[in-house]
Specification:
It is globular and about 45 Å long. The chain folds into 2 domains: 5-82 and 155-233, 3-Layer(aba) Sandwich (Rossmann fold), CATH 3.40.50.300; 91-154, no CATH class. Helices cover 35% and strands 27% of the residues. By secondary structure, it is an alpha/beta fold. The strands form 2 sheets. A 6-stranded mixed β-sheet has the order 6-7-8-3-9-10, with helices on both faces. Helix 3 (97-103) runs parallel beside helix 6 and helix 6 runs parallel beside helix 7. The chain binds adenosine-5'-triphosphate (ATP). The site of adenosine-5'-triphosphate (ATP) has 13 residues, from strand 2 and helix 1.
Length: 235
């Protein structure tokens, strides 16, 4: 594996039961990079991220993380290694904000109190909401908590599935500014999105359509590419 490559996904195919959904997907993330996986509804972005995280198994191909072949490792083992997957289902609804953050830090060696203060500095709204149950938060607040849970677990790589889904434009902007701050902290991320505005955050982007990676390049190259039009509008 190339030096500085934190994630190397090679020829991965996967699906659900007998139904294959993604074919021969290859992508990589270098250290400190934010990489965008862009594509329309149903392109297979979530399925690819789940395969990278270990939620579902690849039927062929390999996933290397920090130089280790993790293709056959379960999701919790990959998470302990620092490959942290952020999806809509990443919360304990009946626990408070603080308890949710605590649950994400159980495996960390440094004291919880210090990491909690660092996360509250990054997400000031969560300090105010710390005694609220996760189930009582708004969609945007829940998204903040999901990202905060990932950050407090000291990830080596954040894998974020559609951070803007279900959010108002205002909250989408806030999530984008948060991701950009995480990027400033040097935390590498692979982010899936339908929203092309997220190209502004990315160092590189991959375009997915009908279960395949159909293009990759710099955000400028991808924005100029006809393939983006093909994937989104079939033109
Ligand atoms: P969206 O932006 O709508 O979430 P996506 O690009 O993330 O789309 P996926 O969610 O990976 O796409 O879905 C790709 C295909 O896999 C779709 O045709 C979808 O219907 C199918 N699919 C997703 N989840 C399952 C499942 N649990 N069982 C069977 N098929 C599924």
């Amino acid at each position: 594996m190339e030096k500085g490559k934190i994630l190397d996904v090679s020829g991965v195919s996967a699906g659900y039961g007998q139904i294959q959904v993604i074919w021969d997907c290859t992508l990589d993330v270098l250290s400190k990079e934010t990489v965008l996986l862009l594509g329309p509804n149903g392109a297979g972005k979530t399925t690819l991220l789940k395969t990278i995280a270990g939620v579902i198994r690849a039927s062929s191909g390999n996933v290397h993380f920090n130089g280790n072949d993790v293709t056959k490792l379960p999701v919790h083992t990959r998470a302990k290694m620092g490959l942290v997957f952020i999806s809509e289902t990443s919360l304990y609804p009946s626990m408070t904000v603080r308890e949710n953050l605590y649950m994400s830090s159980l495996h960390c060696s440094s004291p919880f109190a210090g990491r909690l203060q660092a996360v509250y500095a990054l997400f000031p709204d969560l300090r105010r909401l710390e005694k609220e149950r996760a189930s009582s938060l708004s969609g945007g607040q829940r998204k903040m908590l999901i990202i905060a849970r990932a950050v407090i677990s000291e990830p080596s790589l954040l894998v974020v599935d559609e951070p803007s889904s279900g959010l108002s434009p205002l909250f989408t902007e806030r999530v984008m500014s948060l991701l950009s701050r995480l990027k400033g902290m040097g935390i590498p991320a692979l982010v899936s999105e339908q929203n092309v505005e997220f190209l502004s955050l990315a160092d590189r982007a991959f375009v997915m359509d009908h279960g395949r990676i159909v293009h990759s390049g710099t955000p400028e190259e991808v924005a100029r590419s006809n393939l983006l039009g093909n994937a989104y509008f079939g033109v």
